[in-house]
Design a protein that fits this description.
single chain; mainly alpha; 3-stranded antiparallel beta sheet; elongated
């Protein structure tokens, strides 16, 4: 994964995890697996665990310790009302940014096409 992708993911990974928890509660490793299943294959497990500590501290999730067949109990994270509100805000912000970025790309493509057309016309 390139540096630019890594930097962009830093700002969106919390929203991605909240969106996954909105689908269903999960424990850390399961969240990592689901993130990877959605195509974010280079995300380190430690990155997800650090993020889960932050969202727990921000009180965006509820945590329940569930007995595990192997080893200590697992912490299962579920989205609470504050997390749902944060996720809604994430989607609004994402939509706003995506529309603006797409319009920049569209304008850039038009500019490239116009420049190509004018260059072609000058050569004729």
């Amino acid at each position: 994964m390139g540096k630019q992708m890594t930097e962009m993911l830093k700002g969106t990974l919390e929203g991605i995890v909240l969106a996954l928890l909105a689908e269903q509660p999960a424990y850390g490793y399961e969240i990592t697996t689901r993130v990877r299943d959605h195509g974010f294959t280079d995300i380190a497990e430690g990155t997800i665990y650090a993020l889960l500590v932050r969202v727990e501290q921000k009180k965006l999730v509820d945590v329940e310790k569930v007995p595990s067949e192997k080893g200590p109990p697992r912490k299962v994270y579920s989205l609470n009302p504050a997390g749902t509100q944060e996720l809604e805000e994430f989607w609004k912000t994402w939509s706003f940014l995506a529309q603006r970025i797409d319009s920049l790309r569209t304008e850039d493509t038009k500019t490239d096409t116009n420049n190509t057309d004018s260059t072609t016309n000058k050569e004729n």
